[in-house]
């Protein structure tokens, strides 16, 4: 509920608009590579806002009132910029993969491994981290832009590969996209956890010891 | 039968029946294996446990059989901090321990009306109030056997007996208007911010008023750091300094009984109309994980906040021997403020109630440090304030002073965002607007608050539940800002000084992501 205060409702409305555009593009034009950019932008609009409730809410609450929209704009520029680049990479990969079923099988296996990997968990954890953002002038916008780029990178790393599956599901594009959206949004709001090999969204059999990494280092230094 | 929890110093010095039976029961519980739900170690692990730390401290060995992972997940690591569940969860936790201890006492032919005593360290009428009860320091029981209440890893400030600084037992939190924290945790609220089950799963965590001071500060002050030890090395910390070991120290339970008593005292302040939250998310929460405690048999007790509101009914069934409001209200915060600003006495009353009960105002940042601040020993930092915001604020301060009918000017809060480090024992006094080279001890009116870093190491782990975001602290600085304004300060900058409150804290090394100033109101 806290996340819905401030700009939360606007984000959900933006998402709804994205899904409507997405549905229109898919049903009226069928998925074709030439429409990729439009589809990709609609997909970002549909899927990203629920993922960014925490980040946008934080920017809204911690920025100067007169700079709020600018600060959020800086963040979104960085975030969307990263996802546009990710789209270009995925689009090329899609063209290369989709011509051969054996390539598809290999890519699906690699994506499945990635979903279970500790490296991906590190990316998901990084999405929880609250940054220290400066408040005034261009430094505030620069920090916000960097925050957007960092969030976009961690987001693309953790969820980008599975988006390739969405692209590959040409006949059931919207359905698969909906399922993936539910999955990654749910996963986004799960607590951070220690990186390990495990099935995504499941707890695993071992205890997930939380807390400072007591076993490895005596102390940490935090450079300002 | 409603049992009575009594002031431990009121029971007299040395061994009295209540503490003697407590000691014998603690020994019985300590002798039980950690796999036993009613053992001392199992109960302590409900608050928090980390196998590496427990092994290092000799609480378990590498070969000690532990409960199954399923049981550990269900019972262990439940403690609620930086959350509006802090008070109800600890009330249920105390009740569970009290029942199990009483059962052990009855089995040993002790009194069936035994109740946990509380340590009222803020009692100004008791000269020894701030000294740890001496039974916790004596080497033996009257029969010459080892004293289980005495803990080697209770370092305090390095001297014996441990005596708390007067600033550590402040009851300023009782002046908090509302239970739950506001937006951005401004104000943080008496009972803490609205959260889900909160053993640290969210990235932004702020202590509630009572939790921050005296609760956290006393944890760090009693646990402390081993003499000559590195304040930044967890191996040198006392049991009470970290949530994952705190409940192993028998003094923990007397400390928390007092915190529980203060919750009740806050509610009894009828003049202030203090009430618990009425949201079902609090009353019937948390929705994402149940609070569960072992019973004295093999059973268990699941509870919500609603289940622990009536203390005099089963299964809680206790009261305190002193439930009076510890600090009778002489002058309300709002009235005090308006009087100091020069407005009529009583002018603040209506305004403040409107703030609390009426539509909640949204806090707004008006200043911040230019980047993170690293604190090592006495450290100064500067906060730049937004000139257009402070111009409006100054104008409203002047108008409020001139006309009693005007709304109360904005309240001002300092937020320490993203405190990260490894020294849970650090305690710092935070001053605002100290004159250059001034001795802080001569300027208590500039003391914004006393903070402890209890829980900071777990919150700083990049792969831990808070993803390394650290903890937040919020201190109200309205009266200091008012005083600066009245002294002619233009309020374009605020100087902040962090001063170690203990010798151990001087060696602490931690960072604060951002020092922010928020205003609440106009």
Overview of this protein structure:
The complex is a heterodimer of chains A (224) and B (522). Chain A is mostly helical and 224 residues long. Chain A has eight helices and no strands. Chain A has helices spanning 8-29, 36-51, 53-62, 68-97, 101-115, 118-126, 137-168, 173-188. In chain A, helix 5 (101-115) packs across helix 7 (137-168) and helix 7 (137-168) crosses helix 8. With 522 residues, chain B is of the alpha+beta class. Chain B is 28% helix and 15% strand. Chain B has helices at residues 17-31, 40-47, 51-56, 69-75, 86-107, 209-223, 251-268, 280-283, 333-341, 347-357, 387-402, 456-459, 478-486, and strands at residues 3-5, 291-294, 300-303, 318-320, 364-368, 373-376, 379-385, 411-421, 427-432, 447-452, 471-476, 493-500, 509-520. In chain B, the strands form three sheets. In chain B, strands 5, 6, 7, 8, 9, 10, 11, 12 and 13 form a nine-stranded antiparallel beta sheet that branches. In chain B, strand 2 and strand 3 form a beta hairpin. Chain B is globular, with a radius of gyration of 23 Å. The N and C termini of chain B lie far apart (52 Å). The mean pLDDT of chain B is 91. Chains A and B meet through helix 3 and helix 6 of A and helix 3, helix 4, strand 5, strand 8 and strand 13 of B.
Topology at a glance:
The complex is a heterodimer of chains A (224) and B (522).
Chain A lengths: L7 H22 L6 H16 L1 H10 L5 H30 L3 H15 L2 H9 L10 H32 L4 H16 L36
Helix pairs in contact in A: 1-2, 2-4, 3-4, 4-7, 5-7, 6-7, 7-8
Chain B lengths: L2 E3 L11 H15 L8 H8 L3 H6 L12 H7 L10 H22 L101 H15 L27 H18 L11 H4 L7 E4 L5 E4 L14 E3 L12 H9 L5 H11 L6 E5 L4 E4 L2 E7 L1 H16 L8 E11 L5 E6 L14 E6 L3 H4 L11 E6 L1 H9 L6 E8 L8 E12 L2
Parallel strand pairs in B: 1-4
Antiparallel strand pairs in B: 2-3, 5-7, 5-13, 6-13, 7-12, 8-11, 8-13, 9-10, 9-12
Compact overview of the structure:
The complex is a heterodimer of chains A (224) and B (522). Chain A has 224 residues and is an all-alpha fold.
């Amino acid at each position: 509920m806290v996340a819905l205060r401030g700009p939360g409702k606007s984000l959900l409305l933006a998402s709804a608009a994205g899904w409507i555009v997405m549905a229109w593009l898919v049903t009226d034009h069928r998925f074709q590579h030439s429409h990729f950019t439009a589809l990709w932008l609609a997909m970002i609009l549909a899927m990203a806002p629920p993922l960014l409730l925490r980040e946008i809410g934080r920017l809204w609450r911690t920025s100067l009132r007169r700079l709020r929209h600018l600060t959020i704009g800086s963040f979104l520029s960085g975030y969307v910029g990263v996802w546009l680049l990710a789209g270009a990479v995925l689009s090329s990969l899609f063209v290369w993969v989709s011509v051969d079923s054996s390539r598809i099988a290999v890519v699906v296996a690699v994506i499945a491994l990635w979903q279970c990997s500790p490296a991906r968990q590190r990316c998901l954890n990084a999405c929880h981290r609250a940054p220290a953002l400066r408040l005034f002038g261009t430094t505030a916008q620069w920090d916000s832009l960097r925050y957007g780029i960092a969030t976009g990178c961690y987001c693309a790393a953790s969820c980008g590969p599975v988006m390739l599956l969405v692209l590959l599901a040409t006949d059931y594009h919207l359905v698969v996209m909906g399922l993936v959206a539910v999955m990654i949004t749910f996963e986004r709001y799960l607590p951070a956890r220690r990186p390990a090999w495990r099935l995504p969204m499941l707890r695993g059999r071992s205890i997930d010891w939380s807390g400072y990494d007591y076993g490895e280092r005596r102390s940490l230094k935090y450079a300002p | 039968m409603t049992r009575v929890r009594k002031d431990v110093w009121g029971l007299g010095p040395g061994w009295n029946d209540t503490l003697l039976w407590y000691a014998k029961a603690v020994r019985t519980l300590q002798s039980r294996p950690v796999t036993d739900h009613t053992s001392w170690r199992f109960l302590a692990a409900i608050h928090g446990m980390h196998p590496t730390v427990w092994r290092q401290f000799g609480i378990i060995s590498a070969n000690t059989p532990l409960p199954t992972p399923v049981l550990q997940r269900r019972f262990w690591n439940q403690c609620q901090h930086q959350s509006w569940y802090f008070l109800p969860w600890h009330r249920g936790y105390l009740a569970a321990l009290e029942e199990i201890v009483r059962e052990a006492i009855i089995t040993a032919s002790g009194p069936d009306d035994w109740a946990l005593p509380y340590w009222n360290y803020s009692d100004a009428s008791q000269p020894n109030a701030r000294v740890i009860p001496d039974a916790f320091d004596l080497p033996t029981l009257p029969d010459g056997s080892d004293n289980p209440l005495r803990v080697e890893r209770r370092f305090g400030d390095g001297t014996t007996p441990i005596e708390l600084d007067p600033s550590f037992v402040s009851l300023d939190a009782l002046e908090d208007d509302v239970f739950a924290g506001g937006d951005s945790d401004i104000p943080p609220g008496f009972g803490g911010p609205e959260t889900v089950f909160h053993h640290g799963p969210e990235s932004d965590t702020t202590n509630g008023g009572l939790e921050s001071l005296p609760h956290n500060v006393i944890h760090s002050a009693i646990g402390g750091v081993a003499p000559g030890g590195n304040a930044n090395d967890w191996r040198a910390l006392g049991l009470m300094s970290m949530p994952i070991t705190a409940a192993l120290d028998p003094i923990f339970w007397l400390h928390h009984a007092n915190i529980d008593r203060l919750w009740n005292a806050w509610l009894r302040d009828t003049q202030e109309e203090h009430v618990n939250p009425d949201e079902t998310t609090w009353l019937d929460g948390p929705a994402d994980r149940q609070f569960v405690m072992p019973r004295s048999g093999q059973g268990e007790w699941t509870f919500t906040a609603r289940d622990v509101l009536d203390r005099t009914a089963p299964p809680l069934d206790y009261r305190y021997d002193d439930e009076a409001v510890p600090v009778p209200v002489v002058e309300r915060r709002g009235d005090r403020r308006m009087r100091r600003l020069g407005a009529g006495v009583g002018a603040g009353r209506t305004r403040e109630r409107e703030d609390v009960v009426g539509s909640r105002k949204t806090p707004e940042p008006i200043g911040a440090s230019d980047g993170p601040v690293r604190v090592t020993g006495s450290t100064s930092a500067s906060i730049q304030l937004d000139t257009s915001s402070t111009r409006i604020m100054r104008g409203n301060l002047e108008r409020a002073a001139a006309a009693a009918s005007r709304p109360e000017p904005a309240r001002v809060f300092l937020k320490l965002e993203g405190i990260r480090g490894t020294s849970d024992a650090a305690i710092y006094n935070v001053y605002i607007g100290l004159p250059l080279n001034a001795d802080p001890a001569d300027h208590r009116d500039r003391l914004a608050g006393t903070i402890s870093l209890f829980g900071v190491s777990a919150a700083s782990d990049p792969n831990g539940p808070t993803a390394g975001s650290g903890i937040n602290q919020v201190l109200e600085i309205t009266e200091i800002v008012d005083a600066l304004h009245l002294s002619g300060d233009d309020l374009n900058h605020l100087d902040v000084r962090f001063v170690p409150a203990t010798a151990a804290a001087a060696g602490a090394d931690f960072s604060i992501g951002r020092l922010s100033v928020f205003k609440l109101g106009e």
